[in-house]
Amino acid sequence: MKAFALERLVPAHVRAFEAYVPAPPDDVLLRRFGVTHLHRLNNNENPLGPPPAARAVLARRDAGEAALYPQGDGWHLRRTLARHFDLEPEQVILGNGASEVIAFVIKTFCEPGDNILTADRTFAVYEWMASFSGIEPRLVPLLDHGFDDVGMLRAIEGRTRVVFLCNPNNPTGSWWDHARLARFLAAVDGRAIVVVDEAYAEFAEAPGFPDSFALMRQHPNLVVFRSFSKMWGLAGLRIGWMAASPPVAAMVRKTSISYSVNLLALEAARATVWDLAHIAATQAHCRAMRAGLAALAGRLGLEMLGGIGNFAMLRMPIPDTVVHRRLMARGVMARAMTSFRYAGWLRVSFGDAEAMAAFAAALEAVLAEG
Ligand SMILES: Cc1ncc(COP(=O)(O)O)c(C=O)c1O
């Protein structure tokens, strides 16, 4: 192969970025860890799967349709969501998962020299996408495992373009209520775009969770993210969305990628809107699994963190990476949190009852080894 000066062609911020390597597929992991079954409790998926209407849509599809492009900007789904949330269809922009929507927002508002603001221990993709786009991510430390509003307000300056809040926060489950988010928006006073990532909003049972779509009417700099991967059980189809005030949405639309959401995702997502029975069943499942995990934590003397969401964190008495490896050898995959700046903690998704029982038995055995 002929050598060429690759380094010269790659911007310094891309060269400096360390690529994220996702876990290998199950068949590879099964062989690697010598197990016959793997309970995946690492991705905050919904063990109930998609609601019945979405399942029916998927079952009806004809394989021949794979040859056709989907409609390019989710015309029908945007209208369905707009009707449900009292928005205009133009305020809704879809993406290949909420992850892709993060990129649209950074591309729209940031150029080199600008910065984005988020927390040090939250969904890492805001930080990563800024870094590999040549935008400086500024990270405000969590306070008591939650977003620090005072610290974030203090950190906003003239080149801060976007503030990313994760509400509830992945991985801690902490959350701001409506009054706190409203106070924060009033204090930001339009100096930056404020994104509130509500990927787990549908898990909120507590009164007082923000009505962000209402706040958007008073604060046109507010952008709300939602995902179909968590509550709606469509993680494998990759679809998420954002809503913004009409002028902000019009800007973001310029950098959004048409046709990036496939036709199965569009149709299945539309069929989920807004199945309250599915939400209630999933919330009940999470309540039961959270209680089971709290009982396990109590028995093993482990600290547990977890508010809103389909996951919780447990503090390990030995390194989380060691626990992770030993759990894998017992056919259970949880998330070791060292790489998320939470050394010593394990994040566990609320899987089905069988997976949670397997996790409990495996963790007891792993910790008994010392
Ligand atoms: C807080 C948060 N936002 C966004 C996402 C991405 O969701 P999607 O699957 O829609 O890309 C996740 C996924 O884990 C998440 O935890």
Question: How would you summarize this macromolecular structure in one to three sentences?
Answer:
With 370 residues, the protein is an alpha/beta fold. It is built from 15 helices and 13 strands.
What this model shows, in words?
The protein has 370 residues and is an alpha/beta fold. It contains 15 helices and 13 strands. The protein is globular, with a radius of gyration of 21 Å. The chain starts with 5 loop residues before the first helix and ends with a helix. 43% of the residues are buried. The chain binds pyridoxal-5'-phosphate. Pyridoxal-5'-phosphate (PLP) binds next to helix 6.
Entry keywords:
single chain, 370 residues, alpha/beta, Aspartate Aminotransferase, domain 1, Aspartate Aminotransferase, domain 2, 2 domains, four-stranded antiparallel sheet, 41% helix, EC 2.6.1.9, histidine biosynthesis, Histidinol-phosphate aminotransferase, PyrdxlP-dep_Trfase, Aminotransferase_I/II_large
List the helices and strands and how they pair.
Layout: H1 6-9, H2 12-15, H3 26-33, E1 39-40, H4 52-60, H5 75-85, E2 92-95, H6 98-109, E3 115-119, H7 125-132, E4 136-140, H8 149-155, E5 160-166, H9 178-188, E6 193-197, H10 212-218, E7 222-227, E8 240-244, H11 246-255, H12 263-272, H13 276-300, E9 304-305, E10 311-315, H14 320-328, E11 332-333, E12 335-336, E13 345-349, H15 353-369
Parallel strand pairs: 1-11, 3-4, 3-5, 5-6, 6-7
Antiparallel strand pairs: 2-8, 7-8, 9-10, 10-13, 12-13
The protein binds pyridoxal-5'-phosphate.
